[in-house]
Amino acid sequence: ILLLCVSGMRAEPARYSVPEEAERGSFVANIAKDLGLTGEELLARQARLVPEGERQYFQLNQHTGDLVVREQMDREELCGQSEPCLVRFQMLLESPLQSFRAEVRLTDINDHAPVFLNKEIVLKIPESAMPETRFLLESAHDPDVGNNSLQHYNISSNEYFHVYTQQRNDGRRYAELVLDRALDREQQAEIAFSITAVDGGTPPLSGTALIRVVVLDINDNIPVFTRSLYKVSVMENSSQDTIVLVVSASDLDSGTNGEIAYSIFQNSEENLQTFKINPETGQIRLKKPLDYEEKKTYEIDVQATDGGGLSTHCKVEVQVKDVNDNAPEVIITSLTSTLSEAAPPNTVVALFNVRDRDSGDNGRTTCELTGEQPFRITLLAADAYALVTSETLDREQVEEYNVTVRARDEGSPVLSVSKTLLVRLLDVNDNAPTFTQAIYTMVMSENEPAGRSLGRLSATDPDAGENARVRYALVPPPTGTLAAASFVSVDAESGTVRSLRPLDYEKVPAFEVTVRAADGGSPPLSAQAVLRIVVRDENDNAPVLLHPPPDSSAAGELVPRWAPSGYLVAKVVAVDADAGQNAWLSYELAKATEPGLFRVGLHSGEVRTARAVTERDAARQRLIVLVRDRGQPPRSATAALAVALVDDFSDAFHQLGHDPASGQQPQVVEEEMLTTYLIASLCCVSSLFLLSVLVLTVNTLCKARVRAELSPPSPNCYADGDFASDGMGVGGTGTLSPAYRYEMCLTSGSGRSEFQFLRPVLP
């Protein structure tokens, strides 16, 4: 980009001219045509003018490319007597960045007439003055330059003098009065005539003053200076009253005619304001400090006059020497005070010029930035610079920069100046919100009413404004999954999580939803976190009995009369749908026919004999077992067990179906019906058993024919130990004693799963 900028700068500036005092809107030139650009290109590339000074005198029409006058200009006010008078500026184009230098010359118009500082000029000339003697006259002042400046002097008609126009080294013209014939004081003591200063304008302008010549009596000798031209150099930082030079003149006359008085001849008002001379000693001193940047050379005409009125002149040239008394100036011509943090490197932030009014090394300047900042300075043209970004910016790290531009010269001592530019960064949505946690865990109680606050989510965004405004929302779950989003809601602004309905721990012990935090940028950026809701169990479920079944009036259990202490009668099995402490169950014997005969395991639910069964114990025992959880408040259930004490199992049904001690008629009817049901069931089972034996016998005969040709199988009976690992004991969980089990004998050729014989094995 730097090479592109350099290649885009013209080696020579475009030059134009316009008369001073031109009206606002006056056409100067079509700068687009000179640069080979169209109005559309100027508009698209944001062409603009950047003046070298603080004021903008021209403006550019981006549609036509015309350069017109923006403000009237007075050449004499801007440049004084300097010629040419140039107004310089730069035209900048962006995309890519290009700079074109141009200068407009202000041509002088004749808007000032010559003016004499004194309207009456008095000359004292001795009557002995010889013809062709020259007398220096006060100069007229004309601020115009060139042909419009003062060109010549004229005097009104008289018989004694004519005027001769001379030119100084700096181009200014002055008048010398030449004596044509000898004067005679006795004949005419005073001569008066007018002098006219005329410039070269069209039409010419002029100024007039009156010359009054006083003829003096004879003074034989005029003063004589030691030198006709004095040259001296003075440092511009010399203080007031510093001696510049001492001039000296002598007069051969004696007495009053030999006394010399020195004076500065009034040829310039500026000289009279800057220098003074001691009339007796000829010492020339400064009346005010000099400024090399305002004026570099002074020409002073010093007049020495004796007591008789005779005078002579000498010229004093004062050269002002430059010292490094002016620090560089940083002039901001364009400034972008707010900059997007997404601005790429080499984005122009400011345009500025550096100017030093000194000359030579004192006026050569360099420019730099102080501190480590993401900016750099690019040279566009002589003393014209651009402040551009050197790297990407990040508002979240630094919101604003105080960029200090320091310009220094090469004088001795070195002078410098600093200019601080405030550059604020505008936020771009380049940061997504960030949750303080990846997973949020909140707890809600089971059956908790809807609308309760469960907690609060928190996400931060380092951006600013709308880009940092975070809004929360639940992410919709995939189709076919649990609609957990219907259980809770998230406040979009505060992130507060609230329940939408009561939950049942037994159905939904916990669930997870995904929460999104999105900022208000364009396009918005977002982040996600997991919200895990754990439902805290409440004791809302009572224990449920699995054995004995809760719908049966009482489960029947058989206990032999010879049962010892600790004999397992039955096992009460219950479950609780709650969790934790609410599901911890304990068992206790709430009621029994003989409380001391049985006991219940506190945690196992096993009903065992507390002592050995005796003949005195009632044949029928009724037990009520209480199952209770540990919730607050606790919930419970009861199980009823009917226990029959039998000598052997052959009279089990008789004991279970007849109670001689019972005198209640409804219970007798119920037991009789139960006996009927048992007999009917026994008949059905016997019929099914006979049918199964018949089917097995037929099947065996049919297979015997098939195996007739094969070797006869050798029957094997699998003893009790052969099924040690696969046999299933029922003593531990069922209602029968561990001593009751079955033996099964199979033949190796009887198929895979046919029962050949089934018989109980009694101890």
TrEMBL record:
* Annotated transmembrane regions: 674-698
What is this protein's name?
PCDBE protein
Name any GO cellular component annotation: plasma membrane
In its UniProt record, a GO molecular function of this protein is: calcium ion binding
Cadherin domain sequence ranges? 10-116, 117-225, 226-330, 331-435, 436-545, 559-662
Q: What does this protein do?
A: Potential calcium-dependent cell-adhesion protein. May be involved in the establishment and maintenance of specific neuronal connections in the brain.
Q: Which PROSITE patterns match?
A: CADHERIN_1, CADHERIN_2
Q: Which gene encodes it?
A: Pcdhb14
- State its location(s): Cell membrane
Membrane-related topology note: Single-pass type I membrane protein
For biological process, the GO terms are:
homophilic cell adhesion via plasma membrane adhesion molecules
Keywords, in A-Z order: Calcium, Cell adhesion, Cell membrane, Glycoprotein, Membrane, Repeat, Signal, Transmembrane, Transmembrane helix
Q: Which InterPro entries match?
A: Cadherin-like_dom, Cadherin-like_sf, Cadherin_C, Cadherin_CS, Cadherin_N, Protocadherin/Cadherin-CA
